[in-house]
Amino acid sequence: MPLTHHLSPVQVAEILRVHQSTVKRWVDDGTIPASKTPGGHRKIALADLLRLVRERKLPSVSVDLSVVERYSSGLDLAAQPLDTLRSNLRDAMSANYPTRVHQLLLRCFQAGMTIEQMGDDLIQPVMEEIGKAWVSGQTDVAQEHLGTSYLHAALIDLRNRLLPIDGIPRPVALGACPEGDFYSLGNLLVELLLLQNGWQVINIGPNTPAASLAHMMERQQAKLVWLTCSYLQDPERFVNECNQLHHKATELGTQLFLGGQALTTEVRRKLHYHWIGESLSQFSLAAKRLLPLSGANPQ
Amino acid sequence: MPLTHHLSPVQVAEILRVHQSTVKRWVDDGTIPASKTPGGHRKIALADLLRLVRERKLPSVSVDLSVVERYSSGLDLAAQPLDTLRSNLRDAMSANYPTRVHQLLLRCFQAGMTIEQMGDDLIQPVMEEIGKAWVSGQTDVAQEHLGTSYLHAALIDLRNRLLPIDGIPRPVALGACPEGDFYSLGNLLVELLLLQNGWQVINIGPNTPAASLAHMMERQQAKLVWLTCSYLQDPERFVNECNQLHHKATELGTQLFLGGQALTTEVRRKLHYHWIGESLSQFSLAAKRLLPLSGANPQ
DNA sequence: CCGAAAATCGTTCAATTCGATCTTTTCGCC
DNA sequence: GGCGAAAAGATCGAATTGAACGATTTTCGG
C-alpha cells in the first residue's frame, strides 16, 4: 500500500538515466541516502530518491517517469498531460470522493512533481474554475467547501511527508494569513513549498494578528516571514500593520515576503515589503536566493 | 494476525523488503539472532530486529513502518494515565514540534482509544487549558494557533486512517459549522467519531450557510445532520435558520443533532432539534441509536 | 486425537550486485 | 585550443541475493 519500495542501483540508474556505476558512487559519497544489506548490497528508498529530485539535489538529471511508474508497484497515471490531471482533479473534488483527490495529488507528488508545479499548474487553475462556477450559481457553496476540504486534507498529508526527519538545523521561515482571512489553502501551499526547499517552517495559519506575527518573528529569529493574503477585512488597517511589520523585519534582518490575490495594485502601492509576487514558482525562486548555497546548483 | 513479539522469516522479509530466503540465510549465519522451535522453525524477536535496524546492521533507510506497526501496535507504552497524556500533549503543542503531537495521538489511536475518549478526556481539557492561558495573557495567540494547527493536522491523518476502504454502502451523516464559525477542531472530532461508528460522513466544514446545508441534506438523503457551533456570529439569525433546518429535516426523516460551546442555555431555549449535547461520548451514543435502522424509511 | 490446509524448512541454481580497475567524457583554466 | 583534474561510463570475476520445489512442521477445525 505505501509505496516506499527499495530500489537497487541499477533501477535508480534507469530512473535517473545515468549509469549504474554513477549511482553507486553517489550512494557511497552520500549524495543519495541508502542503506546496505549485511552482504553489502545497496538499497535505495524510492521516496528518498524522489525527494532529492524535487529538491534538485541531484546534478542535472531528468527523471524517467515511466520507469518510476514501473517500480512504484502498479501505479497508473504519472506522466499524464496537465489538462487531464486538472479535469480529473475537478471531477474528484466535485464528487464526494475524498480518497480520489488524495490519491491524485499523492501520485503527482510521488512522480516527482514539484510543489510549485502542483500549486500553479494544477490546484490554482482548478480552484479558479470552481470559484467561477460558484459565482455563476452552477455550484453550491457547500460543494465548493467540500472539495476544498478534500484538497486541504490531501495537502496536509503531503506536508507530513515533507517534514524533515533528520535533526539538521535549517533556516526558519515564519508565515500566516492576516487577521480576518480564513482561507488557508494558498498559505498551506506556501508552507509545503518552503518545506520542500529545505526550510524549517512555522505556519501560524489563518486569521493571525500582525502584532502576534511580529512577536513570533523576533522570538524565533526567522530569516523569512511571509503573509498569504486571500482576503483583506480592512485594507487600510492591513497596510498600516504590514508596514510596521516590514519596519521591524528590516531591523531584525528578516525578509518580508507577500503574496495572495487580495493584494491588488492599489494596495500594493502603499505597501512596504522585501518581495511580492503572485505565483508559487516566483516565490520559490525568491526564497531560494535566501538559502545558503550548498552543493551543486547548475543551470 | 495476532500481535506477537516473535516474527517468522516471511514477516521479517516483508519489513526489511528483502526475500525470505535472504532472511533465513541471515539468521543461519548469525546476522539476525533467532530461536528455533523443536521442529526447526525460526522465530525472530521484534525487539532484536529493531535493535539491529537502529544499529544500521540491516537495510533500513525507510523501514516500512506501517508493517512494523501492524506487528508492534499495543506493545510499547499503551496504557499511560490520562493526566500524563494530557500534559504530554500540552507540552508538544506548546513546543514547535508537530511530529510529537502527531505521534502522541497516533499511539493513543493504535492502542485502541476511542475517538470520544480522545476528544472528551484528552483534547477538550487541553484546549481549555490553552484557551485559559491565552485569555490570561500567559500565551500568545500565535502559539495557540500553532498548537491547534498541529492538532488539526494529526486529526486529519487519523481521519485518513478511518476512511472506509470497502464499497459497502453506509448511512450518510452530513455536518458543518454555522456561518461565521471558523473553528474547525470540534467539528473534525465529530466527523472522526461518526467515521469510527460506521457512517459515511460528509463534513462541509467551517462557515457553512444553513441554506446550503439544507440543500445538501436533501440531495444526499442524509439520515443524520449535525451542526458544531463554537461561535455564533448572529445568534438570533442562527436560531431562525436552525429551526428552519429542523423543520425540513423532520419532513425528510432526518435527525438534526446540535453541539458546541456556543449553544448557551438562552440560545437552546429557542432552538428546535432532535438531539443536543455537549460531550462526544453523548453524541456517540445518540448517533449509535440511529444506526441499526436500515431500509425502514419510506418516503 | 486426527486430518487437511497453510506455513516453513533446507537445498539447489539462476540472476543480480559488489568492488576494483580502466577508459571516456566533461569542465574549468590559462 | 590544449591540458589536467574530476566526474561519468564500461568491464569482469567474486560474492550476495532471489526464486523454485519437495519434504517437514505448525495451525486449525471437528
Descriptive report:
- The structure is a homodimer of 299-residue chains.
- With 299 residues, chain A is of the alpha/beta class.
- Chain A has three domains: 66 residues, Multidrug-efflux Transporter Regulator, Chain: A, Domain 2 (Orthogonal Bundle); 81 residues, Methionine synthase domain (Methyltransferase, Methionine Synthase (B12-binding Domains), Chain A, domain 1); 117 residues, Cobalamin-binding domain (Rossmann fold), CATH 3.40.50.280.
- Chain A contains 13 helices and eight strands.
- A five-stranded parallel beta sheet of chain A has the order 5-4-6-7-8, sandwiched between helices. A three-stranded antiparallel beta sheet of chain A has the order 1-3-2.
- Chain A binds a DNA duplex (30 and 30 nucleotides) through α2.
